[in-house]
């Protein structure tokens, strides 16, 4: 895909509407919206995924000129990514355990309200 095709693919109806509304509200917002779309961002994805994806938009990791610091930064970012994945898994397991406990409690209460033939008491 060439550059023209990739630039025109970014101009979705939501992106165009955002730019127009930005200019209507306040002209610097319109310019910021144009810059965001041209920089490679999509307002559609921003709305779907939340604003958390803005963390690294347009600011790639460049070398600081100090190899030791760059190695430390890369190692720290990898460690933080691992810890985030572990924490996400922990929260998921915690939620599943809570759901299992609530379901077991519900089933125990439900079993007490039926006789041996499955008829309500």
Question: What is the makeup of the main sheet?
Answer: none
What fraction of the residues are assigned to beta strands by DSSP? Answer: under 5%
Radius of gyration: 26 Å
Which stretches are poorly predicted, pLDDT < 50 over at least 5 residues? none
- The shape, in one word, is flat
Distance between the termini: 69 Å
Range of helix content: over 70%
Helix and strand content put the structural class at mainly alpha
User: How much is the average pLDDT?
Assistant: 77
Oligomer: single chain
Number of helices: 5
Number of strands: 0
Topology:
Elements: H1 3-9, H2 13-25, H3 27-38, H4 43-49, H5 67-112
Structure description:
The structure is a single chain. This protein is an all-alpha fold. The chain has a domain at 1-60. 70% of the residues lie in helices and 0% in strands. The protein has 5 helices and no strands. It has helices at residues 3-9, 13-25, 27-38, 43-49, 67-112. The longest helix is centred in the last third of the chain and has 46 residues, at 67-112. The radius of gyration is 26 Å and the shape is flat. The model has no long low-confidence stretch (mean pLDDT 77).
Characterize this entry briefly.
The protein is an all-alpha fold and 121 residues long.
Search tags:
121 residues, mainly alpha, 5 helices, 70% helix, flat
């Amino acid at each position: 895909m060439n550059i023209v095709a990739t630039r025109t693919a970014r101009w979705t109806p939501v992106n165009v509407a955002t730019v127009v509304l930005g200019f209507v509200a306040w002209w610097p917002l319109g310019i910021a919206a144009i810059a965001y779309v041209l920089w490679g961002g999509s307002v559609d994805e921003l709305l779907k995924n939340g604003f958390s994806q803005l963390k690294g938009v347009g600011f790639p990791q460049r070398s600081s000129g100090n190899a030791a610091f760059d190695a430390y930064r890369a190692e720290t970012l990898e460690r933080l990514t691992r810890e985030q994945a572990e924490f996400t898994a922990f929260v998921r397991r915690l939620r599943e355990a809570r759901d299992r406990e609530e379901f077991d409690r519900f089933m125990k209460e439900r079993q007490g309200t039926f006789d041996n033939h499955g008829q309500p008491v």
